[in-house]
Batch of 2 targets.
Target 1
Amino acid sequence: MGMFVNPGNDAFQVALNSEIYVDKTGLLEYTNRVIDTKQAFICNSRPRRFGKSITADMLVAYYSCGCDSRQMFEGTAISKAETFYKHLNQYDVIRLDIQWFLTPSESIDNVVERIEKSVVAELQEYYPDALGNQNISLAEGMSHIHEATGKKFVVVIDEWDVLIRDAAEDTRIQEEYIDFLRTLFKGSHPTEFLHLAYLTGILPIKRVKTQSALNNFYEFSMLSAKTMAQYIGFTEEEVRELCQKYHQDFERVKCWYDGYRLGKFHVYNPNAVINLMMWGEFQSYWSQTGTYESILPFINMDFDGLKTAIIQMLSGGRVEVDVNTFRNDMVSFQNKDDVLTLLIHLGYLAYDQVKGVAFVPNEEIRQEFQAAVKQKNWDELIRFQKESKALLDATLNMEAEKVAQGIEKIHTEFASAIQYNDENSLSSVLAIGYLAAMQYYFMPIREMPAGKGFADYVFLPKPEYIEEMPALLVELKWNQKAETALQQIKERKYVQGVSGYTGKILLVGIAYDKKSKEHACVIESCQV
């Protein structure tokens, strides 16, 4: 058992020993299925504290022939699979944590050299007859071992992208590192000495021009998780079970920590959920893993529409984003879409792959963003907050005419001439209009299933304000009367469908006339 070659199963045992462990060994069914195939090159990227290292430790514990993990995996999801024993502890495994090589006492200039020398030295101890004391690269060493013994390797690399992030401006280091990865994984020769390659980090594989630097890898990310979706973070079902065990209000947990959409799964940040279950405190645990200061340079970039998009999403709105131009690094930004795509990979934004829109996923992340933009005293935000506060006050006071005037003012100032008459534009304007509500309310729920349909917007007050603030149920109509919106709320019984809420509700109907460009509003109050 070595530090890099067959490091054993102790690290994964620590995860199993923890009070809260959610079984994600089902991922091994997929890796078992693709081992020794063209699909055996996997890059599974996800944000901080989404279980990257635990997954890497699990792969090592399962595949490494340097340990006996049968008892460890008994009773888990993978133990029920037909392939469980076929691959259990059958292979030489090389595990690298690139962050580990970035020690404070060593220069970042020699990271690749240190990686190769460290791993080759251990391989020479394992296979002295095949390697001797030759001064060779890691790829050459693995190739020589395969030629001499017929053995192949499983390679697991954690924090694969740390040099792409930490040495973002150093082209020489980046090129040297990418070349190192290419010698390990690119082309037909590496497939001869590799059973499986699994890379995990925050970013997908860096693009060189328009192509991935390692285009033989199958990528699973926050943009498209595919079959890995349920293994990136906690699923809604898993969180619901934890809420029952630890006596937490699931609906409140959902407002605070839900929001990521990966395929058919609602995905939660495991770190946040575990901290909540352990300590019982609803707060942002995000800043404990990487403060909002890390995103300040990005959200303050001078790209047209970037700050407006951030404000719109802070208000609960959604913004279209083209995720295809991002180069998967921290420096090659061409427009606001590239910045927003980075924020999706970092976990500060969620992404709806079907609709191609980005949004702030939950209350935890909204607080982090709010802290970040306040740090810079955004003039745009200050202005919108002032107008929004007036709009919220008018709504709470049931001053329908003032509400209509406030929405019209924001609509005129915010929406472009091209999109002004678009229903989606009105929806976005409404989200921005109620930005001030975020102090008292959870992020608005769009198209919430309620009664016999879907309510356009539902604002639920936070528990500390539930006695003084009513819930808001807002319905939008385009080229129709505001009274029609209110009538729809009643006929489809939206009020009865607002899950788990009892108290005062304001029913708000808002309409926009395309010809006159005038807005109208009606407001009624009810009790549930």
Note: The two ends are 64 Å apart (CA to CA).
Target 2
Amino acid sequence: MRPTADTGALERLYGADVPPFALLRRQRPGAPGPAPVELLFGAVETAESIEAVESVQTVRSPDGRGAPGAAPGPGLLALLPFRLLAEHGLPCHDDGTPMRVLRVREHHVLPEDAFTGRHAPGRRPLEWQDAGFTTTDAQYEDLVRQFVASDAARGGLNVLLRRDWTARLADFRPAVAVELFRRLLTTESGAYWTFVVHTGGARPVTLVGASPQGHVGVEGGRVVMNPLCGTYRRPPEGTRAGDLLAFLADRKESEELAATVDAELAVLCRLAGPGVRVEGPFLRGMAHLVHTQCRISGPAAAGARETLARALFASTVVGSPYARACRAIHQYEATGRGYYGGLLALIGRDGAGEEELDTAAVIRTLIVDHRGEARLSVGATVGGRSSPEAEAAETRAKARAVLSALSSDAPAAGPARTPRARTDPDLDAAVRDALARRHAALSSFWTRGAAAPPMDAAPVLVLDPGGDAHTELAALLHLVTAVHGAAEVVRHDAPGVAGTLVRHPAPVLLASGPGRPDDPGCARMAGLRRTAAALVRERPPDGRPVAGVGLGFQVLALAALPDARVVPRTGGTGPAREVEVFGRRVTAAFRNAHAIVSGPDGREVIALRERAVRGVQFRPESVLTSDGAGVLRRLLG
């Protein structure tokens, strides 16, 4: 299957019996000039899971590499609904939205002006009927207030809460979707993917969107992710220098992006070998909005399909910490998300015949069913310091950005036009400086992409405290192997776990996780306290330290300090604070909802070093922790 440049293939999209198809413009970051448009025709099937999808076959040469004559290009395009989170044991409303797979039979590559230089036959003005949000601004603001007042928000949880805009489109058909795609090409820029996907059949579903968010990809032997968070609303007259610079300096915005990067690192480190690296932040400018994003990557450890199955979904559309954000969505959103927050995933072969993967998050996307019922879901990332009014305004801006592009009478020719302020060299320099300062604030371990040392030391034994930790341990393990060597994980409820830890001939590390460590009604916490007490009491102080981070630190502190007690963490300071740890000043990322205090004045205990028992309250693996590798090295050394 080789790509063609047959513009006559377009005429098939305007007929009476249109087969399943997709139109994609995939604009890679940093690529020069506008990307071409890919037109895919094929057959649509449904699948129960990603694992059930038949692999894209790659022709192999005797040396195991792709055959030189293997045709590159896309093999399948999968539409992954949000409910697939249940495959990971995570809560979500199961609305029955099917996973659909377009098995590609034809692949055409067309210039952009094949669309922007023409109108659809029989083109008519777009008429929205019964259009509007299903909830009022006041109702959405109340939802945000409820979350901001929760213990979860005070404990550092960030979650994307959605609202829906709905309408009816009379006489909707594939040709209308192609016209909407043309309008997006002409009026919007900066999208990672601009697309139409039409499933065909008796009850077709059509997706039309311009997503700024790529999720996970496999390219050139590396797995790549592009976490995006933070939104500056561009005024109609163009960028205001002061407002843009204030946005880049906003601590809330930078911490939300860092939390998103942390969540994606936890995913990436399960998919990649040593040498994970964080780049950015960068700006992704669109017609009406500007976002901040980073690029994280590492050597791929699995094929495209396995990588995709293990990477669901982008934390940008969920929140962080990930599993707790899923529970919050399940609690605060009353209905399922359908395809919103899911993925479009393109799996194919590169020029060497090796599998490659490219994905886009299903956001900024209008979804139209066979009756012409249309839904556009938008959301804002809400945290403990969110303003309900500002978050509601953000959802309106995101909806307006899509609807204005789809509804405008876009010009019939010319490249995509984005309203921009006149080029200002001073502003450009100021933006570069602001981004450089934010980059410098990130952990040097991740920005330099440090590799793991030789694995000649006895492995560190890491205690998984349960709860959500299985989704968050990977980044910590990556850091452990980089500063010490091999690491092995043991669950908190494994038989004889306390004895295993006491006898281990190398350092022991109690990892972080959710929950209050002195909760009397939680069997998991009671077990963790017993294990910590056994380690403090029985572990010999012979150079094999017992260390803890986050929750692990808290249970060790309760066992080691006779007057230690737990109090709710006070809000208002944000997750990143400058503290002194073992005689050094570091910027540290705090995620727990509770703190350990000690002494008659109730001073917070940030770090602990009592004989062989050591620990820190914060998360050394976070990109916000300035010397996380150094802190962990001192804990384990």
Note: Residues 57-70, 410-422 have pLDDT under 50 and may be disordered.
